[in-house]
């Protein structure tokens, strides 16, 4: 009998890739509690990802990468998060960014080629640091307070970025900065130097091992060629599905833990495990309905993005809805799993307690719920014109 988790695996290539992801996830799960308690960055997990060749999954084939589809990226993220949500979310930003850069062509080709070749050769990773304390989420449209000033041969950037996921391990990253002389914001590829400082501020209730600290730029130099000037094409934001895929993986892990518990836990007042109780079966059924609706929507959105290359901007409402649905359903799935397990689920030694904290972080990842709902309303109203 095919496992439910394998329902969306379509061929042998995908089957082999998710097998690798499952093996990594099992290894990461053994380390997850320690990194969560310490709030420490799991460098060893990323060494394993590099050794397994996973950091190049979204690099275009012409540069030596695997060039996986969005559907396949969702598969990989989901399986990895089954073992450790924080590692999956963190590496997802790298994989998603490379995927996005390749799909949009927003980077100058020589600069993108250099990045891709470094990813394949050295296991280099990338992320974009855009959030700031004063501007809030960049998806809301706030102007960066980080400033870029023209200097000989390039630019000097000064500012402080928050929510800088992967910051402990990156040797380069993209920064959004405002250029006063142009009256506009732009993106710059910043390379590590003595002018770049990491401030360890990340101490949260969930996703504690993503290394999302503050990064301070003190007149950090960026060469002219490292300013990212192209706008590229609009890809509809499909790459952001790496986020709900992560929370779907956490929900699956919570569901499986609760099912195992229900099948094996038999209190002394029963002659059968609690899975025989109608109330428990009702909760399991509700949990399963939430899970299957969310997964179906997630994979359908990814598949449409892959197939409808000319219509990707028009898929933005559906992509946002997939994130909205998966994240909120995942929260409810973990909640129901904890109801099945009962008070034991509150123990720090129980992974459900970590899943409960981690899965709520999805509410604060883009696109935000309010943005998704507003976009759906706008789309519906325009549909009548």
Automatic annotation (TrEMBL):
Keywords: FAD, Flavoprotein, Oxidoreductase. The keyword Cell inner membrane does not apply. Residues 130-218 form the Acyl-CoA oxidase/dehydrogenase middle domain. Pfam families: Acyl-CoA_dh_1, Acyl-CoA_dh_M, Acyl-CoA_dh_N. Residues 245-361 form the Acyl-CoA dehydrogenase/oxidase C-terminal domain. One of its GO terms (molecular function) is acyl-CoA dehydrogenase activity. The keyword Iron-sulfur does not apply. InterPro entries: Acyl-CoA_Oxase/DH_mid-dom, Acyl-CoA_Oxase/DH_mid-dom_sf, AcylCo_DH-like_C, AcylCo_DH/oxidase_C, AcylCoA_DH/ox_N, AcylCoA_DH/ox_N_sf, AcylCoA_DH/oxidase_NM_dom_sf. Residues 21-98 form the Acyl-CoA dehydrogenase/oxidase N-terminal domain. Its cofactor is FAD. PANTHER family: ACYL-COA DEHYDROGENASE (PTHR43884), ACYL-COA DEHYDROGENASE YDBM-RELATED (PTHR43884:SF25). Belongs to the acyl-CoA dehydrogenase family. This is Acyl-CoA/acyl-ACP dehydrogenase. The lineage of its organism: Bacteria, Bacillati, Bacillota, Bacilli, Bacillales.
């Amino acid at each position: 009998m095919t496992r439910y988790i394998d329902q969306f695996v379509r061929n042998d290539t995908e089957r082999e890739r998710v097998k690798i992801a499952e093996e990594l996830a099992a290894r990461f799960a053994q380390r997850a509690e320690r990194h969560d308690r310490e709030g420490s960055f799991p460098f060893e997990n990323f060494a394993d990802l590099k050794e397994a060749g996973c950091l190049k999954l979204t690099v275009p084939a012409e540069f030596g990468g695997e060039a996986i589809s969005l559907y396949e990226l969702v598969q990989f993220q989901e399986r990895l998060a089954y073992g450790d949500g924080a590692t999956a979310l963190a590496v997802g930003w790298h994989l998603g960014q490379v995927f996005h850069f390749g799909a949009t062509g927003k980077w100058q080709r020589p600069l993108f080629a250099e990045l891709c070749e470094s990813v394949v050769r050295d296991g280099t990773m990338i992320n974009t640091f855009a959030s700031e304390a004063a501007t809030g989420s960049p998806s809301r449209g706030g102007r960066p307070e980080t400033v870029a000033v023209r200097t000989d041969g390039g630019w000097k950037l000064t500012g402080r970025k928050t929510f800088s996921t992967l910051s402990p391990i990156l040797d380069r990253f993209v920064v959004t900065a405002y250029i006063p002389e142009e009256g506009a914001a732009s993106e710059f590829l910043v390379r590590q130097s003595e002018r770049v400082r990491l401030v360890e501020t990340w101490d949260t209730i969930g996703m504690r091992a993503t290394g999302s600290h503050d990064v301070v730029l003190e007149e950090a130099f960026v060469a002219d060629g490292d300013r990212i000037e192209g706008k590229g094409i609009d890809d509809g934001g499909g790459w952001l599905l790496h986020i709900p895929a992560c929370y779907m993986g956490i929900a699956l892990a919570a569901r499986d833990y609760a099912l195992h518990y229900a099948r094996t836990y038999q209190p002394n007042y029963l002659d059968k495990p609690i899975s025989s109780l109608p109330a428990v079966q009702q909760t399991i059924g509700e949990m399963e309905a939430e899970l299957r609706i969310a997964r179906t929507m997630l994979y359908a959105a990814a598949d449409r993005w892959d197939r409808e290359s000319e219509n990707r901007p028009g898929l933005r409402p559906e992509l946002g809805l997939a994130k909205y649905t998966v994240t909120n359903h995942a929260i409810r799935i973990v909640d129901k799993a904890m109801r099945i397990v009962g008070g034991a689920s509150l123990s720090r030694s129980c992974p459900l307690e970590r899943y409960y904290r981690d899965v709520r972080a999805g509410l604060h990842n883009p696109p935000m719920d309010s943005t998704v709902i507003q976009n759906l309303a706008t789309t519906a109203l325009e549909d009548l014109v």
